[in-house]
Amino acid sequence: MSLEAAVSSFQQLQNSLQTVVEARQRLDSQLSENEQVKKEFSRLTPNNQIYKLIGPVLVKQDQVDAKTNVDKRIEFINDEIKRVEAQLRDISEKMEKKKVEIVQLQTKAQQTTQVPTS
Known about the structure:
Blueprint: H1 3-42, E1 50-54, E2 57-61, H2 63-113
Antiparallel strand pairs: 1-2
């Protein structure tokens, strides 16, 4: 593989890493929001009403359903975080291997351009 191709491949990995990091940040934000909602739900009495915003309309929702939905969302987000963390580890490992490959290619290129002195 040429040095240019290796550098290009490394840059693609960097772009992928950035995309996955942004996804991880969004998931953290969603998890935080849903945990806050769950915390608020824990303060409700059976007489409190829950409304869900659907488009421009507030729709009445059953407390049990609302709590179940939030719990499922938290579970889903946690599963997604695990998946994204695995992607981050995978991309980081590939980047490290690519860095080593680039250094080796640079070293090889420098060695072939050096003129032996006599």
